[in-house]
Amino acid sequence: MAKKMTDLIRGFFDPIEEDDDNTEFKLPLDDSGKLHRPMGTVRRVQHSFKTMKNRRNEAALPAVLPLDDESRALLEIAKAVRDKAYAKYSGFSVGAALVAESGQVYLGVNIENASYPAGICAERAAFCSAISAGEQHFSAIAICGGDDRVPCYPCGICRQVMAEFCTPSFPVILADGVYPLASLMPHAFSM
Ligand code: THU
Questions:
Q1: Count of Cβ atoms closer than 10 Å to residue 154 Cβ
Q2: What's the pLDDT tens digit per position in 80-92?
C-alpha cells in the first residue's frame, strides 16, 4: 500500500532521498514559491484518487429500510420534543427520541450556547439523559430537525457516541427511512 502511494506521488513531488522503504519528497516550487507541475500529472493523480473512491463506494453497505408504523410513531415523538430545543444561534431545532431496551423513551433537544462549542446536539442530549438514568442498551433512535420531509442526519460526533453504545444494526430513524447505524458510521473508532 505504502509503495503504491509512493508510485502515485512520484512525478508530482521531487524526490529528495529515495530508497525502497523510505522516500522523502519535497514540493516542486518555482522561484516565486508557487507550486509548479504540468497539469497532466495533476490529472493523473486526481484520476487515481477518484478511482479509489469509486471502488470504496461499491462496497456493500447495509440497506436503508422503509418507515413502518412504529418508527413513524417514534418520529412523531422526536418532532414533538423538537419544540423544546434551545437553538437561539442557528435557529435549527432538532428533537431526538431514544428507546432503551427497557422500553423507556428518552428525549433530547439541541441546546446551544453563546460559546458555540459548548452546545450539544439533540441525539447526545438523549443519550446523556438515558445513561444518567442507568440505561446502556438501546433499541432505536428517531431524529427530527429542520424540514420534516428531509432526513436530519446525525453529525459525526453523535454517530460516534451511538457507536459506543449500540450495535451496527441499531436503527436510526430519519424522515425518509430507517438507517442501520453501520450505514451511517461504517468505521467507528473503538479502543
Ligand atoms: N444538531 C443536532 O442537534 N443534531 C444533529 O444531528 C445535527 C445538528 C444541532 C446542533 C446545532 O445546535 C444545530 O443543530 C445546528 O448545527
A1: 26
A2: 999 999 999 999 9
